Amino acid sequence: MKQYTVTKLAKLAGVSVRTLHHYDQIGLLKPSVRTSAGYRLYGEAELYRLQQVLFYRELDLELKEIGDLLDDPDFNLEQALREHRQMLLSKKFRIEAMLATVEKTIFHLQNKVKMNVEDLYEGLPKEQALAWRNEAKTKWPGQVAHTEKLLLTMDKDSFQQLQDGFKNNWNNLAAMCHLAPAATAVQTAIAQHYSYILQFWGKTGKQAEAYKGLGDLLANDERYTKIDGLPNPAFGRFMQQAIHIYAATTLE
């Protein structure tokens, strides 16, 4: 079995030797072997454990909390890795959104361009965009007028930023469809979704009933929950449940 000295492990993991010494002292990561000369040697199990320590440190957990988690008899490495993967994907989407924000803000400072109504529906086939707008104006005339008036105060760059952020959040939620709607990662993404929706609605504060109504719409009208252009009723139901949970626990 391959073993690593403390120096090699520190270099491999991107941490300091002093850090590994500290982890050993507090019992968080002990070497598999300590030679008669006092050298620490680490094996495969310690590599996996150190990986988990570093992942949880990225989530700002205290070292004692990490130790308690890893020493729990019910700790499952594969499940933990799947959870880390989902959290990293969420972080990836947030970083991509922030990068897009930075780039668009730079452009915005250099060249402000005002919006028009057609820009609000850019990216949709013209006839489809017109049909959706007319349908929405029939169902929610005051809200549509208010929303369009609000969005038209933006320049194109700011509106694109809003659209991109919303799209990233939507894709993130679609990737979580296999999780329980009440899962922490899902509810965190739903909170972000709600903040985007408020920007489109031009409202602030707690809009529990309106937001739950949106969740019902997503479950009952497959046009609004298509993935890659295809209807996805399961995603619609997932969004409805997740939104209702968020509204009940946070907005009411």
Summary tags:
252 residues, mainly alpha, Multidrug-efflux Transporter Regulator, Chain: A, Domain 2, 2 domains, three-stranded antiparallel sheet, 12 helices, 3 strands, 69% helix, elongated
Word description of this protein:
This protein is an all-alpha fold. The chain folds into two domains: 4-71, Multidrug-efflux Transporter Regulator, Chain: A, Domain 2, CATH 1.10.1660.10; 79-115 and 154-251, no CATH class. The protein is 69% helix and 3% strand. It has a three-stranded antiparallel β-sheet with strand order 1-3-2. The longest helix is centred in the middle third of the chain and has 34 residues, at 77-110.
Q: Total number of helical segments? A: 12
Total strands: 3
- How would you describe the shape? elongated
Strand order of the largest sheet: 1-3-2
The structural class is: mainly alpha
Q: Portion of residues in helices?
A: 55-70%
Termini Cα gap: 57 Å
How do the SSEs run, as a string of H and E?
Answer: EHHEEHHHHHHHHHH
Strand content: under 5%
Mean pLDDT: 80
Number of domains: 2
Unreliable runs: none
Main sheet record = 3 strands, antiparallel
Please tell me how large the radius of gyration is. Answer: 24 Å
Short description:
69% of the residues lie in helices and 3% in strands.
Reconstruct the topology from this structure:
Blueprint (H helix, E strand, L loop, with lengths): L3 E2 H8 L3 H9 L7 E2 L5 E3 L1 H15 L4 H9 L5 H34 L6 H4 L5 H14 L1 H11 L4 H20 L8 H18 L6 H13 L12 H19 L1
Antiparallel strand pairs: 1-3, 2-3
